[in-house]
Amino acid sequence: MVIETRPDPSRNNDRALSAGELAVARHLLIHGPATRGDLGDRLNLSYASTSRAARALIQEGMASEALEQESAVGRPRQVLTAVPTARHVLGCKLTTDTAYGVVCDMYGNVTAAARAALPRPDSSGTVSLAGTVKVIAQLTTRLGRKVPSLDGIGIALGGVVSGRSTVREGTFLGWRDVELAGPVTERTGLPVTVTNDVTALAREQLWFGAGRSHSTFGVITVGAGLGFGVVREGVAVEELIDNGHLLAHVPVDPRGPVCGLGHRGCAAAYLNREDVERRVSAAAGRTVTFDDLIRDRAAGDEDAARLLDEAARALGHLIATFAGALQTPCIVLAGEDVAAFAGSRVMDEVIADRLRPGPDEAQRCVLDLITTPLTFNDWARGAAVAGIQNILGAV
Hints:
The chain is an alpha+beta fold. The chain folds into 3 domains: 84 residues, Winged helix-like DNA-binding domain superfamily/Winged helix DNA-binding domain (Arc Repressor Mutant, subunit A, Orthogonal Bundle), CATH 1.10.10; 132 residues, 2-Layer Sandwich (Nucleotidyltransferase, domain 5), CATH 3.30.420; 164 residues, ATPase, nucleotide binding domain (Nucleotidyltransferase, domain 5). The chain has a 5-stranded mixed β-sheet with strand order 7-6-5-8-12. The radius of gyration is 23 Å and the shape is globular.
C-alpha cells in the first residue's frame, strides 16, 4: 500500500519560502526525490527542521510525500518529491526585433512557446518601452491560457541589468537606464525578474545543468556577441564588473584582425559574428554571413576553413583563460554559433596545450567542457528559470 500526502488546494502561492524550505525545494528540484533523513544529512538540517520544511512544501503544493510499500528488508520510507506543476513562469527573451516566450514548470520544462514582433526602433535606434511592455503582456495572456495559472515572469536581454529590474544598457534595444520590471508588473499583475541573458543561462545551468556537479563554473556564449556568465560557489554573479569586455577583448594574436573597438587580434575579432561578417564581406566585395562560412567550409572552401579554424583557436585560448581565472574545471559553451566549433580539433589542441603541465609539475587539470547550442526558445527558458528562482526566493 502507498500512502501519499497531498497538497492543500487553498495554498498561498505568494508566500516566500523560508531558508529551510528553499533548501529542501531546491534539492528536490535539482537532485530528485529524497527521504527526510537524506535531506537532513545532505543539507545539514535537523530532522525537526526538515520535517517542518517538508510539511510546509506539501501544504503549498510544491511537494508530495509517499510512503513506499514495505519491502522484505528494512522499514518503509517516506519519500519527498517535487511537484513540477506547482508553479509556472513565463520566460521572455528580447532580441532586436522579437520577443520569444515560453512557459516553464518548476523543473524548467517548456510546456508552451510563442513569439511576437517588437516595435521597430525609432530614428535614434531606440525600441519603444511602452510597445515592448505591451508585447510582453500579450505573450503573457496568450501563453497563460496553456497552464492553470502563471506565477511570475522572467525577462532576459543582452546588456547590463541591475536590481533584477532596471536595464542600464540594453545593447540591442537602444535602452539606457530603463525601468522594465515595474511597467510589466503593472500591466500583468505578476512579479517580474529582469536579467542579462547570459546570466539567466548561468542560472539555468546552476540548477539543471553544470551546477549539478560543479559549484563554480563559467559560461561563454558565441553568437551576435560574446557573452559571459559566472557561478561561484553555487551563486550566480548577477552583474559582471565589465559586462565581459576584459575577456571578450583578451589578446590572442598581435598580428590578427581588428575588432569593432579597434583591438588587434583580440578574441572578439575572431568570434564576434558582426566583426567576422564585416571583415569577410569587405574582403569578398559582397555580403558574406557566418552561415555562409559554415556552408563554404562544408563544401571544401579552404579560406572558410582557415577563418573558422582561427576562430576556434581563439575560442580555445578564451576557454583556458576563463577557466584559469575562475579556477574551475568546468566551462559551458553555448550560443547560436557555438555548433560551428563543437568538437573542433583546433580548439581541442589549443586547450590541451594550455593545460599541459611542465616537466616537474605533478598537478594535472582536465576541463569538463559542456557544449549546448541554443535556439531563442532556449534563451527564453533561461529567463523562465531565473523567474522561478526569484519567486522561490533563491539568491
